[in-house]
Write a structure and sequence with these properties.
The complex is a heterodimer. Chain A is an all-beta fold. Chain A has no helices and eleven strands. In chain A, strands 2, 4, 5, 9, 10 and 11 form a six-stranded mixed β-sheet that branches. Chain A has a five-stranded antiparallel β-sheet with strand order 1-3-8-7-6, with no helix packed on it. The N and C termini of chain A lie far apart (38 Å). In chain B, 0% of the residues lie in helices and 51% in strands. Chain B contains no helices and eleven strands. In chain B, strands 2, 4, 5, 6, 9, 10 and 11 form a seven-stranded mixed β-sheet that branches. In chain B, strands 1-3-8-7 form a four-stranded antiparallel β-sheet, with no helix packed on it. In chain B, strand 5 and strand 6 form a beta hairpin. The chains are: A mainly beta, B mainly beta.
Amino acid sequence: GQQLNQSPQSMFIQEGEDVSMNCTSSSIFNTWLWYKQDPGEGPVLLIALYKAGELTSNGRLTAQFGITRKDSFLNISASIPSDVGIYFCAGSSLNYGGSQGNLIFGKGTKLSVKP
Amino acid sequence: NAGVTQTPKFRVLKTGQSMTLLCAQDMNHEYMYWYRQDPGMGLRLIHYSVGEGTTAKGEVPDGYNVSRLKKQNFLLGLESAAPSQTSVYFCASRILYNSPLHFGNGTRLTVT
């Protein structure tokens, strides 16, 4: 079935560092979304992207909808301790969600603080 | 404004027992979804609904049933629980097919 490849699976951050993660697919997506999940809670939307090439910021977060429509990345600048959590990419395409626009999720990138 | 509310938060079942998970949203959203989250697997769609009285299968529907008798509620049923259904279950809703999902805080289910 359809898959989103999200990388890296996990990473350690030190306060102040910039962080980058991405998602790729073998097929074209119409929508890319980035969510963050804190322990014991549901995912919360960070950024939504709807057009190829679109670059959108939300505070220290920046995400881009790849020009080929097969990838997206999320950057976090000047990381702080509360950035830890699991970040998920999600997308919809006619191949997967059809006309209903159902989302398929990546497996997540777990952000932890360097000891 | 509560958003998406899931009950219960935790549940332990024995193999073969049945239960129903309730999802309620107060945002007048048309679309509602049930996902399961397993370690290293991300979120996988079980069933969804595009409006009151409608349901459809997602990626992993086997062993589950759903009902959407009222627009604000979406029920997920397990008729005969199996250990493979041990997971965290998330309900989500959205107003349109291409608008972002709003998630509840999850139900942690353990089947022994």
